[in-house]
Write a structure and sequence with these properties.
Layout: H1 10-28, H2 32-55, H3 59-78, H4 112-127, H5 134-147, H6 153-174, H7 241-253, H8 258-266, E1 274-277, E2 280-283, H9 289-303, H10 308-336, H11 341-348, H12 368-384, E3 390-392, E4 403-405, H13 408-421, H14 427-460
Antiparallel strand pairs: 1-2, 3-4
Helix pairs in contact: 2-4, 2-9, 2-10, 3-4, 3-6, 3-10, 4-5, 4-6, 8-13, 9-10, 9-12, 10-12, 10-14, 12-13, 12-14, 13-14
Length: about 475
């Protein structure tokens, strides 16, 4: 007797299971409300970026602001008073430990997605110099959720109160990371001697954030263990590694292709860029390196169809990674205190030479963009996969065209080599910087992978 005679048509059964699987997959997708909440998170994170650009926030400072703002959002959505139960925060000292014993959080009736984004803006509002402007973003957020009928008046009040309480906890936590003490530390002066960093034209700005190594990291308890090997020693010997690298910069920048010029400008990300018109200095709006990778994180979250929780997680992870990567990089910058190519080429090869990018106001080694780009790319690759292609529109707002990439790692490699095309970094600062960034990212992943894997697995399960 055949299966057909038993009424079990294998073709029909196949169609049934295909339809069943399709239905389960559809159920597993985030809802439209999730997409709405995710998109509002990303949009209002750019509101924070816009304030940083206006304030000309330093690259390390921008990473710090992103980290604490997103930590508040992530803590709200984690819906717990136990800081150490939050996966990304498990190794950190809990800010709840120092609160009044009577401190309570009323979660009933709170719209956690709304409260998360509101708390993010609340921290940004209070932690950045021009943060008060984010009041407008908060008002817009309220209007957006109300218009979609996703939050009613009673829930709105409860959600704002909850968000403000969590934001206050994170803001208190941030006051103890050493940032406030930076202005009290000994004033930095350039070191005299061959091969040492010195302010560069056209603005000859003072060194930025020379004591940033004193800021408390999130993951890197033993900062020296992430220190790279020292750079090639300064030498005027034309056969030395230093002079060979110097010559490479001079030769490469003298014959740049149009594509190389585009790459250099796309990844410039120098918030201190200044243009002169006569005696008037004009600051040019540019996103920070960290801001560029936060933008890429948002682009990837939307392309992958992530829901709110996953998007919030990966943004927070990248922001905290950026924060620690900058601390490690700045620790090395002011230890090696290496001369910039502009200064060395003017002294040793061609006094009239200028790079196509304006040289940032801090020592050269290691390359900050190389370090933080590789850190971000490794973290994103661990979440989205090795061959995740995307179109990077992060710089469109600032007048630059979009660029397509086959993977995060390829994007980070391009960001790194852009510093050579731009004439602002030696090759060893670029290559060693990428190694430094990868080491930082891998260490962070060791501490967070168990939760990340669970989050990814949960997102793939069908909804029952």
């Amino acid at each position: 007797m055949t299966n057909m005679s038993k009424g079990k048509n294998p073709f029909i059964l196949t169609i049934f299971f295909v339809l069943l699987a399709s239905n389960l997959f559809a159920q597993a997708l985030p809802s439209e409300k999730e997409f709405f909440a995710r998109d509002k998170l990303i949009e209002h994170l750019f509101s924070i970026t816009d304030i940083m650009v206006t304030d000309v926030t330093s690259p390390p400072g921008a990473a710090r602001f992103y980290a604490y703002s997103l930590m508040a959002a992530y803590l709200v959505y984690s819906d717990t008073e136990n800081f150490n139960e939050v996966p990304l925060f498990q190794q950190l000292q809990s800010p709840f430990d120092k609160l009044d014993p009577n401190f309570t959080l009323e979660r009933e009736g709170v719209n956690l997605a709304f409260a998360s984004t509101y708390a993010m803006l609340e921290v940004g509002k209070n932690i950045m110099p021009s943060g008060k402007k984010l009041t407008t973003a908060q008002e817009t957020l309220i209007s957006e959720y109300s218009k979609e009928k996703l939050i009613r008046k009673k829930a709105l009040k409860r959600s704002i109160r909850y968000a403000e309480k969590i934001a206050a906890v994170i803001l208190d936590y941030a006051t103890e990371d050493g940032y406030r003490q930076l202005s009290t530390l000994k004033r930095y002066s350039p070191t005299k001697g061959q091969g040492k960093w010195y302010p560069t034209p056209p603005a000859y700005m003072a060194a930025i954030d020379p004591e940033w190594r004193t800021i408390r990291p999130f993951f890197l308890e033993n900062l020296p263990s992430f220190s790279p090997p020292p750079p090639a020693e300064y030498s005027e010997d034309k056969n030395s590694s230093f002079f060979t690298q110097l010559t490479e910069i001079y030769e490469v920048t003298s014959q740049l292709t149009e594509e190389q010029k585009l790459i250099a400008n796309f990844w410039d990300c120098n918030p201190f860029n200044v243009s002169y018109s006569g005696h008037m200095a004009i600051g040019l709006k540019k996103i920070s390196p960290g801001g560029h990778w936060i933008g890429i994180t948002g682009i990837a979250s939307q392309k992958a169809g992530l829901g709110f929780e996953e998007s919030l997680y990966i943004h927070t992870l990248v922001a905290m990674g950026l924060h620690d990567a900058f601390i490690s990089c700045w620790d090395e910058k002011y230890r090696s205190d290496r001369i910039r190519p502009l200064t060395a080429i003017n002294q040793l090869i061609d006094e009239a030479w200028r790079p196509i990018l304006q040289t940032p106001p801090f020592p050269e080694y290691t390359s900050g963009h190389s370090v933080i780009s590789k850190t971000s790319a490794v973290l994103l690759t661990s979440y989205f996969g090795e061959n995740f292609n995307f179109i990077d529109t992060s710089e469109v707002f600032f007048g630059l065209p979009e660029r397509a990439f086959d993977s995060f790692l390829k994007a980070s490699n391009e960001a790194a080599i852009s510093r050579l095309y731009g004439g602002i970094h030696f090759r060893d600062a670029i290559e060693v910087g990428m190694q430094q960034g990868e080491k930082i990212a891998n260490y962070i992943l060791e501490r967070t992978n168990s939760h990340q894997n669970r989050l990814i697995e949960d997102s793939q399960k069908p909804v029952k």
